[in-house]
Amino acid sequence: MEPHQDNHPPLTRGMTLLFACACGIVIGNIYYAQPLLAAIAHSFGRAPTELGYLVTLTQLGYAASLLLIVPLGDAVNRHTLIVRLLMLNVVALVAVTFSTNFTMFVVANVAVGFVTCSTQLLVPFAASLADARSRGRAVGTVMSGLLLGILLARVAAGAIADGLGWRAVYGIAAAMVFVLTVVLAVKLPKDRRDARLDYAALMKSLVALVRAQPLIALRSTYGALVFACFSLLWTGLTFLLSQPPYSYSEGQIGLFGVVGAVGALAATSAGRLVDRGHGNAATGLFAAAVLASFALIAAGAHSLAALIAGILLLDVGVQGMHISNQSVIYALAGNARSRVTTIYLTSYFIGGALGSFAASVAYGIDGWRGVCVAGAALAGVLIVSWLASQRAGVRQVTQ
Q1: Which domains does the chain have, with CATH numbers?
Q2: What are the DSSP calls for 82-115, one per residue?
Q3: pLDDT tens digits for 152-197?
Q4: pTM of the predicted structure, to 2 decimals
């Protein structure tokens, strides 16, 4: 059994749930805008499709911080780093709330994306506290919180915006993160480490990790493709639902996050499958679910039932794939889990940013059908990548 890292006490159930709640609260900050695109666009005199690029920019800000900030989690005091990032998150959310023009709004949102990387310091922190036999389950639980945060953020944003306007969404988010900062400053396990690697050495070691573990690069590719599918759907969905035949309000659009939240329940199960040595087969199953979902989603242009079923199937596939990926790579990482997180999630959110961008372009070219064709194409590439890895003999390594 691998020892606990840095002489921390073992991860308790209560601490696992705190990590999960923290991840859910913080990650929601970069997804509140999705059901609000039409309302935000109207307030700044912009076209709704133009706001699709806002999601892309925010995710790119997040991806940049994953690359530049998260590697520090292997070298510095994680407690201090996480708390300081949360404090900056509060400042950025306040700036969004009181933005007076579109440029200020965009810049503040990119800043929100950049400092939200604290979530991806919490996930490997939890993995380092768990023992080898339960690590997949612990990662799955924490990631369930994060994924529920992504999906339920849309529900909360839509409901609040219907009654109080979109600015209230970000004001309330700032208050929530402030309270969370205080709680984590007290409850988060103290990290006694001082820097052991300089920053340049940390960044160079990312390349060495990929060369030493080709499976990390493979799983990063899976992650980029599957999150591109996810972001493409949820960005394009706002365009579909805000227009005839649906013509839904922000609150009604946000309620679709409840449907997607069911998919997050697959996360813990995926982690357990990896713990038992079945992660490779689970990967193929989840990839097939993503591909199949777009047939239902395409029919959703005129059928609410088909749309809901497709969203549910897509989210099960996406979240299950994501947890399978992370459970596998954390088993390889040892004391380099923050750097492995950087490699994987930088790819993941670049994929998400490209998916959001593709949704805006595809919808502008061919409406909902264009979005679904693009999604099916990405899912097809994912399936081909998985099949090719089986033939090449790139297999999962488990604990």
Answers
A1: 9-392 (1.20.1250.20)
A2: HHHHHHHHHHHHHHHHT--SHHHHHHHHHHHHHH
A3: 888 899 899 988 999 999 999 999 999 999 999 999 987 765 555 6
A4: 0.76
